[in-house]
Amino acid sequence: MPRPPNNPWGFDAVIEFIGSDCFDVGAREPLSPPRSPHGTGTATDALSPKRKSLKSLGSFTNLFERLGISLDIATPNGPDDPVPSLIDDLGESGDAADSPEDDVDITNSEPDRKTVNDSLAGMSKKKRKRARKRAEKTRKAEELLQVSEERQQLIQIIERKVEKNAQESTKTDLFGKQQSRSNVGAKIRPATPAPQTLSARPREDRHFDFFTKLMEEFPEDKKWLVSPMRLTSDKSSPEGIHIFVDASNILIGFKESLKRTRNPSFDMSFDCLALLLERRRPVAKRVYAGSTRLTGPLASAEKFADLAGDVGYQMDIYEQVYKVREQTESQRFFKDVDRMGWAKATQIRTGSGSDSETGPPPTTPSAPKWVEQGVDESLHLKMCQSILDVEVPSTMVLATGDGAAAEYSDGFLAHVERALKKGWKVELVSWKQQTNGGYKNKKFRAKWGDAFRMIELDEYLQWMVDS
InterPro entries from the xrefs (predicted)? Predict the structure, then answer.
């Protein structure tokens, strides 16, 4: 028995015990060295050189047996290595310097733990480290393979789900109506359209391209489009159309559309506008109404008006006046809506609120400015003349989006309804942002059906650019 230590922390006995070890790492021989069968020396002297060389520095096998600690424990994992790729693990079999006999597979099966420990115990420290690294790489490769398979299964499930949703969205109900889909997300996250790029093209190419576009968009007018251009009014033809152009509304809408495309330097081409309005159909009346300012006329507007007069339009040009324009009742109402809300503005005018006795609050008078006067009213008059003078109703083409009441008239929308009631067909040509909501009203569209048609100039913006 080793002598007790002189102090509680003395390791002299342990060091002597380890130093007296002469057996193999995995050997389970008695702790006292046996004598040699020849009677001289110990069994250690009789061991072969190979047997002696198997001694490993730092082996605690005999110490564990002496202390009664079982050696049947799980082999600890090696240090964490970077996760290898499947290609590296499948293409490598360990270190290049390792010989085939050094490779020991400890993961292909689940042998008895004691056997595994014995196999590791029979190796050197370096070989055990390599074996554990290979086992860890193999384990991680299997985990990566399992994750890859699960991911592939998830992708297949998602693809089947998307395909199923697409099929359900195209199904129709028993009445033939397409199933409605929620657009809440679209309202919360409105998409910003990319600006349309415009470039000045040669006039001949632009006109030919636009002519081809009209042939595709209006096949019912193909017989007129291929006929010679008509510069004079054909009042005798019952098919003659009546065209009314509100130049201010059209030019302002064109400038606003150019701002959205970030190309504000172009002028509008009246040639293409006239071709879209007429489409070479017989024309009974052409009316162009606009305004000018003698103190500072716009060159682009003057050019636009001159070309309209050259192709046979009746020109109604009025000089702008410097005045304070009084707001209509409708304009004052919507101004109050913006200021105090719809409910409050309605209560004041209907007399249902607490402020009904005092009425709407006084408004600050507007500053005087240059404004049009009588332009819309002149077009309203010409429209009424066509409705009254023509015995057989034809088609009325109105180039404006204005629908509000004018200063001295009830507005374009009211006159459009008068024409529709008398059996006329009406084509409204305007810019989308300049179109009054009354023309888009569902009840209004359902009431008049095919007799009323809207043509948005936004679809033809690239051809409306003058070059």
Answer: Mog1
